[in-house]
Design a protein that fits this description.
single chain; mainly alpha; binds tryptophan
């Protein structure tokens, strides 16, 4: 059976980008067609300045939101990364496989390190090695497919390279995974800055729709979205990125097979389009917000899911990581 692994970092509240780029497929498709594991990857949240209490709260919230979105613990495994030691154990072996040049070429590292330095801060070493930990997350589970948004393509490519290199050096050990991306909305852009990805920590949130935003807040953010000069509604990612983003979001809300270019033909004004985007997003999020409120009232249920999930994840990862330790030449503990 196909094995799927993916994760989300608890560095902020989950966004519409997370949902359309990744989580929605986990819920609607992946958990039914594969042996799927999904993780709140909390160790990754420590790569930038963080507040311990906030990371804890956001980890629980991310898990609750994934359940609210429809992950079914009977069908998939949901767990918190730091509850399973194998990730950190394997990460070290992969640090011994990757090169520093390879790490420094990662786009996300270059961008985030530059931001950090511009703020006068220092760059944690773990920000550089982050993709190696991500590779460990994936390879520890003999993963075949990694459903992610476009921004993670380079990291999954690196994971493939490390798996192939390790296998060549030490004998076949790892399954070589591949990334899968959604057909539309694989990269949802910030509503205030269509050149940047809609991210959890984006600009105070004016251009970021969070999954828990009230309908009024969604309305305000969408109606104020930056559009491009021009009056006609056409789908052109290069020349009209703000408009293209709204069309993609609406197409994604409408569901399977809805094509943003075709949608564009049905509109003669930006205002009508924005109103439909508001309705589409509000309806998409309504059931999720309701279910989340129920789960918040039942923390014991969420804790139980995460406990069972970690036990299941450990049982899968342990033999894979043991195999890698042996292959690389470490003496078995006996
Ligand atoms: P992160 O928020 O970086 O932990 O991302 C979790 C998942 O959501 C990854 O698969 C990302 O590729 C995806 N994702 C995050 N932001 C966006 C976005 N703006 N558009 C599409 N996918 C996204
Ligand atoms: N790096 C991913 C992101 O920023 C999150 C992540 C960590 C992940 N480990 C993973 C995604 C393993 C898929 C598989 O979005």
């Amino acid at each position: 059976m196909t094995r799927i692994f993916s994760g989300v970092k608890p560095t902020g509240h989950l966004t519409l980008g997370n949902y359309l780029g990744a989580v929605r497929r986990w819920v609607e498709v992946d958990q039914y067609r594969a042996d799927a594991l999904f993780s709140v990857v909390d160790l990754h949240a420590l790569t930038v300045e963080h507040d311990p209490g906030r990371v804890r709260r956001l980890s629980r919230q991310a898990a609750s939101l994934l359940l609210a979105a429809g992950l079914d613990p009977e069908r998939c495994t949901l767990f918190v990364q730091s509850h399973v030691d194998e990730h950190a154990r394997l990460s070290y072996l992969l640090e011994c496989t990757a090169t520093d040049g390879e790490m420094r070429r990662m786009i996300q590292y270059k961008e985030k390190a530059a931001q950090e330095r511009a703020r006068g801060g220092s760059v944690r070493l773990s920000l550089l090695t982050y993709p190696v930990l991500m590779a460990a997350d994936i390879l520890a589970y003999d993963t075949d497919e990694v459903p992610v948004g476009d921004d993670q393509a380079q990291h999954v490519e690196l994971t493939r390279d490390l798996a192939v290199r390790f296998n060549q050096r030490y004998g076949h050990t790892f399954t070589v995974p591949k990334a899968t991306h959604p057909g539309v909305a694989a990269r949802v852009m910030d509503l205030q800055d269509p050149a940047s990805k809609m991210g959890k920590s984006g600009d105070g949130g004016a251009g970021v729709v969070f999954l828990l935003d009230e309908p009024d807040v969604v309305r305000r953010k969408v109606m104020r979205a930056v559009t491009d000069s021009g009056v006609d509604v056409v789908y052109d990612r290069e020349e009209r990125p703000g408009l293209a983003n709204l069309l993609e979001v609406l197409a994604a809300c409408r569901g399977d097979g809805c094509d943003p270019a075709e949608l564009a033909g049905g509109y003669s004004s930006y205002g009508d389009l924005k109103r439909d985007v508001v309705d589409g997003v509000v309806e998409l999020l309504r059931p999720l917000r309701k279910r989340h409120a129920e789960l918040v009232a039942d923390p014991a249920f969420v804790d139980g899911v995460l406990r069972d999930g970690a036990a299941r994840a450990r049982a899968v990862a342990r033999p894979v990581v043991d195999r890698a330790y042996q292959a690389v030449g470490l003496l078995p503990a006996g």
